[in-house]
């Protein structure tokens, strides 16, 4: 390791980007390791789980304030940590490519004794100014709790012009986004937290001026039902960026079916999507949705979606789907629709890795399921949901319920691909102690398996003892119940 050059060390350390303990430990090995790790740590220093009661990060930032600014803040009653004029070994902020306003405000409030909101405002302003000035390659900006018009600061035009990622809130005044729109036109990732029940036309403008918007994320975060539509103008603006937009992730809250008609206008326009995630919303069998063509789609996740609609989207995809994670719903003809879905997946998704399936316990369903396992060799995670309504599960005997589970496990032993690492059994698949033991013994010699279930029966003592035995043998990596 001592002979590794700087470039090799840099590549190795980047693998520890999410492991702050290992990355911090590199600082004390030797000077070369320290010099290599510092730029990685300071690329986004706000991401690490450190105690903001510790004043070291605040001390580093305050050290960049000029003497006249420190004197001004002191005169306003703000007690700053004493800093020496001795220069740092590194120009830390020059490596920083991210500003997170919420975390910076937390650091300020915990590291100083500020009496009034006015003095807090003053200190925040000076900290933001020095960050805008010194962060030479600013890429990511989180302004959810912003109160300062940073686009008027010195160097703002130069820094914000390079911005690639913006996280913001709909509670920010529209005029703020108008100001950003003058400068920030190269945003690739836009993440919006929707906190107020009205449209924000400043965000609409910000979307419209982007030249390379690739990722759009929207999350509702409020506590009341509202009757004003905050969605349509913003989501319709996305259609103007359809040529570049690859990833759409949406989490709705308190939205009724009649309110999401805008999606039936928007989704057909976003033809270059690779990721389509929509949570807490039912997509019905609208004819426009059945005609969706996403030739590059890789991740498909929607709550909830009718089986026929899901089948059409899978069939019209380009064969690149890696994740299909859906909560299916069907009001008629469930058995046939679900069979068609399974066939469509194994005919059109050779690269599938994560998959959720809902089906009945018919012979045809088990036959088609085995064909899927034999065809989809890349499958790593499988969620199986048995439809209780169609199977009239309440009238089934325990023997029939366990028989279905036994048949399912036999198919998995015979035909599961070697890459399979996780199986989730939810709702009405029941597995007897004997069948589970036979399955785990048959799995011996393969990679360790994680099993998740929602049934409390597996918390019984006999099941626990059986699972422990195969965990100790390395057959099972994890076995737990999720509600």
Describe this protein's structure.
It contains 19 helices and 14 strands. With 483 residues, the protein is of the alpha/beta class. Among the domains are: 1-41; 282-444, Leucine-rich repeat, LRR (right-handed beta-alpha superhelix) (Alpha-Beta Horseshoe). Residues 390-394 have low confidence and may be disordered.
Low-confidence stretches: 390-394
CATH topology of one domain: Leucine-rich repeat, LRR (right-handed beta-alpha superhelix)
CATH architecture assignment name of one domain: Alpha-Beta Horseshoe
Number of helices: 19
Terminus-to-terminus distance:
47 Å
Spatial strand order of the main sheet: 1-2-3-4-5-6-7-8-9-10-11-12-13-14
Class by alpha and beta content = alpha/beta
Largest sheet: 14 strands, parallel
β-strand percent reads 15-25%
Radius of gyration: 27 Å
| Oligomer description | single chain
According to DSSP, the number of beta strands is 14
CATH superfamily of one domain: Ribonuclease Inhibitor
Name of the CATH first level of one domain: Alpha Beta
Shape: globular
Helix content: 25-40%
Rounded mean pLDDT is 86
Protein name: F-box domain-containing protein
Organism: Rhizophagus irregularis (strain DAOM 197198w)
């Amino acid at each position: 390791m001592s002979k590794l050059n700087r470039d090799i060390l840099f590549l190795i350390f980047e693998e520890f980007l999410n492991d702050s303990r290992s990355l911090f430990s590199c600082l004390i090995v030797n000077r070369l390791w320290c010099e290599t790790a510092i730029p990685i740590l300071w690329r986004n220093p706000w991401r690490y789980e450190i105690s903001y009661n510790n004043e070291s990060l605040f001390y580093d930032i305050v050290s960049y304030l000029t003497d006249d600014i420190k004197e001004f803040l002191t005169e306003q009653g703000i007690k700053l940590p004493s800093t020496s004029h001795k220069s740092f070994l590194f120009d830390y902020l020059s490596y920083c490519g991210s500003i997170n306003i919420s975390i910076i405000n937390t650091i300020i409030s915990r590291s100083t004794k500020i009496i009034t909101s006015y003095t807090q405002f003053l200190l925040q302003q000076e900290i933001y100014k020095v960050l805008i000035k010194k962060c030479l390659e600013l890429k990511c900006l989180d302004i959810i709790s912003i109160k300062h018009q940073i686009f008027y600061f010195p160097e703002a035009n130069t820094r914000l012009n390079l911005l690639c990622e913006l996280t913001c809130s709909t509670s920010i005044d529209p005029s703020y986004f108008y100001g950003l729109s003058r400068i920030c036109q190269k945003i690739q990732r836009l993440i919006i937290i929707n906190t107020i029940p009205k449209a924000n036309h400043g965000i609409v403008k910000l979307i419209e001026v982007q030249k390379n918007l690739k990722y759009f994320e929207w999350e509702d975060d409020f506590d009341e039902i509202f009757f004003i539509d905050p969605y349509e103008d913003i989501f319709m603006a996305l259609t103007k960026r359809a040529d570049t937009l690859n990833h759409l992730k949406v989490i709705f809250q308190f939205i009724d079916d009649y309110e999401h008609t805008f999606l039936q206008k928007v989704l057909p326009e976003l033809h270059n999507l690779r990721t389509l995630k929509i949570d807490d919303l039912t997509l019905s069998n609208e004819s426009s949705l059945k005609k969706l063509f996403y030739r590059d789609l890789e991740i498909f996740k929607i709550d909830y979606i009718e089986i026929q609609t899901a089948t059409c989207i899978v069939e019209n995809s380009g064969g690149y789907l890696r994740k299909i994670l859906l909560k299916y719903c069907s009001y008629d003809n469930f058995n046939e629709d679900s069979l068609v879905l399974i066939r469509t997946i194994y005919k059109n998704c050779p690269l599938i890795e994560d998959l959720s399936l809902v089906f009945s316990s018919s012979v045809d369903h088990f036959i088609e399921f085995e064909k899927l396992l034999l065809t989809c060799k890349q499958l790593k995670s499988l969620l199986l949901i048995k439809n209780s309504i169609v199977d009239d599960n309440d009238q089934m005997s325990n023997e029939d319920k366990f028989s279905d589970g036994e048949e399912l496990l036999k198919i998995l032993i015979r035909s599961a691909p070697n890459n399979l690492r996780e199986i989730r059994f939810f709702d009405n698949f029941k597995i007897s102690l004997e069948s589970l033991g036979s399955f785990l013994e048959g799995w011996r010699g393969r990679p360790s398996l994680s099993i998740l279930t929602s049934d409390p029966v597996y918390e019984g003592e006999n099941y626990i003892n059986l699972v422990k035995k195969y965990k100790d043998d390395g057959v099972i990596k994890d076995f737990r119940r999720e509600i």
